[in-house]
Amino acid sequence: MKKEIYLNKAVHQGKEFVKLYFKKNLKVERYFKGISWIKFSKTYNCYCIPNRPTFIEALRKVLPAEININSYYLNREKEAQQLLPLKRDPLKREKEEMAPPNRELYSKRRTLISFHPFKEKKIDSIRISFQYDPAVYEILKAAVYIRWLKDQQLWLMPAKLGLLEDLLKKLIPVGKVALSRLLVIKDLKIKQLLLEQGWQQKNWRSCPVTYLEKLVLMDYSEQTLRTYYGLMGNFINAFREKTMEEINAFSKEEINQYHCNLMQEKHASLVQLNQSVNAVKFYYEQVLGKEKQQYELIRPKKEKKLPQVLSIEETASLLKGVGNLKHQCILYLIYSAGLRISEVCKLKISDIQSDRQQLFIRGGKGKKDRQSLLSQKALALLRTYYKQYHPKTYLFEGQFGGAYSVSSVQKIFHRAKALANIKKIVTVHSLRHSFATHLLEQGTDLRYIQALLGHNSSKTTEIYTHITTKGIEKIKSPLDNLDI
After folding, report:
1. Which of 16, 201, 409, 477 is at a distance of 20 to 30 A from 49, taking alpha carbons?
2. 366: buried, middle or exposed (CB in 10 Å: 19+, 13-18, 0-12)?
3. Model's pTM, two decimal places?
């Protein structure tokens, strides 16, 4: 039986490459190690080659006849993202193959265009990459300030805001633009263009630029900024027949009626409603300077849900199942210090205070700094990780530099959860909840847990008293006393 090597396409920070997946085989690995253009990726824990036909053809030629190259998943978008080909129900697969392709849906799919910082001869530039699309290609070719570097196979433009704004206006109607986190953009016009990408298809009215300006000046996080701006856009465009002057003069009753319709007709969740109320309140109070008491809006009651936590046994099973050293360190730190997902991504090497057995978390939720625990087991693992990976600035860096992405951490967790066969509906944040609950069960004072988690109010931390099994396991159900 021939050995199979599966080719999976991947795009990381705008650069395309092909991942090579196969069952562990020393003979295949020996072949790969002897070929200079086949690189091993520590991030993806697999071998990779550039995504060009010449390299794929060369791979077929250098490998012996008993090794088969399987390119079935190479040009299939959904399967290309999987680590290994999925086992499908043969009946379901037969139906899928018989069904005609939905060409209308395919035609509506927008091309992803990525922008990344690039240095050419110590000059700051911007690298542009995209999966081939004739419309995008023609725009780039027509722009006099964009060059195609044949030797490096990439598009390059000067790092100038005016040129970037001009290009975005041309590209947004034909594709979806994504800027790297390493490109820090403070220009409001460019921010507005990126936030309103999907609005052009709906012919929506833009939010006042003063709204965006106030959010930026008050130093709201990127996530809050995107959420508020989008919800304020929904509010303004729900009254397209009215002018902005009429919207600015809305009474409390008119604003409340909008949110009632949102709840009754659009079936918005309680979280979405509360966010919308806050976004609209921000506009009337912070931007227009209206009095707060005049716009005290009707808010829905908040659901009192208990967080899902993992037992100690489940946590141990999840952490043991992670094979990659970097991935293991990330999950160890989240659980051992009660970190949020964004906090572990932003950790720097200098934040590890090994002499004090503490972890310094800078700029957490609400832009607050705090100290948390540094486990001895986590520290031992981190020392091994540092010797192997040699991170430069951030403790956990992406394959092409910069902080590790949130989506990558989520994938690590869900992969570990599947390997541990955990059926509970849990997320990365559940490790933080588990940290607090397990500390409480150990007898740790609630005030210390509050400080470690960075909670403002003790009431937020008190929710874990409803989850802990400490003391409850001693209570006997009255049913067990019945003689039945």
Report:
1. 409
2. exposed
3. 0.64
